[in-house]
Design goal:
The chain has 8 helices and 3 strands. The chain is mainly α and about 220 residues long. The longest helix has about 40 residues. It starts with 20 loop residues before the first helix and ends in a 7-residue tail after the last helix.
């Protein structure tokens, strides 16, 4: 009776020859799982990045009404593209003369150069001139990137600041009617003629700027 507790033997794990078909099948399964896991991580990072970018423009929404095209350029040129300037100055000030750039400074420089070039050739942004788009945007929970895909997007550039091209008309039913805002409409919708996005305190954008681009 002493050996009764060990009457059930433990099932041994099967070992397949490296060149067998079963081993190859297992290897393919493992590779497929690895690729799926990697793709999931990439999608998660992409989703987080999109939420951060959309969050920035969400915080650029005016208290009431819409932005003009000129004000939208101001948001991109004077706030979005300059969000890392303070950190860059600190890195440059800390670097001794003749020393190479730190990894952080090099990455910040790279980001600024890339985004400045993107703005020069055409950057895609939510159409904050458009009343239905702005109304929808205000309802966003600041978490789900898919919601923002319902909005209308335009492409603007520093090389041709007077032109805004609709890049995505928007998927929401309220955006299916042609209601392209004109300069005249922008002026009529403006509630406060003295309002400027640059008059807003930096803290308004802090929640999104501090999480932008990950850890540098």
């Amino acid at each position: 009776m002493a050996g009764s507790s060990k009457s059930k033997s433990t099932k041994k794990e099967k070992i397949f020859h490296p060149d067998s078909r079963k081993a190859a099948q297992l290897a393919r399964t493992h590779l497929r799982k690895s690729k799926l896991a990697e793709a999931t991580v990439k999608r998660s990072k992409k989703h987080a990045t999109q939420v951060d970018v959309y969050g920035f423009f969400y915080h650029a929404l005016p208290p009431v009404g819409v932005l003009s095209l000129e004000e939208l350029h101001t948001v991109v040129r004077d706030i979005w593209l300059t969000r890392h300037d303070d950190e860059l100055e600190q890195e440059r000030a800390a670097r001794r003369k003749g020393r190479p750039k730190s990894t952080k400074e090099a990455k910040l420089d790279e980001i600024k150069l890339r985004e400045t070039e993107e703005y020069r050739t055409g950057i895609e942004v939510p159409d904050l001139r458009d009343e239905p788009t702005v109304q929808l945007f205000r309802k966003w929970d600041q978490k789900e990137a898919a919601y923002v895909q319902q909005l209308r997007f335009i492409r603007i550039s520093s090389s041709d600041p007077a032109v805004a091209v609709i890049s995505k008309p928007g998927k929401h039913h309220s955006l299916r009617v042609d209601h392209t805002p004109s300069v005249h409409q922008d002026q009529e919708m403006s509630v406060d003629e003295n309002y400027s996005i640059l008059s807003e305190p930096p803290s308004r954008f802090a929640s999104t700027i501090t999480t932008m681009d990950g850890h540098l």
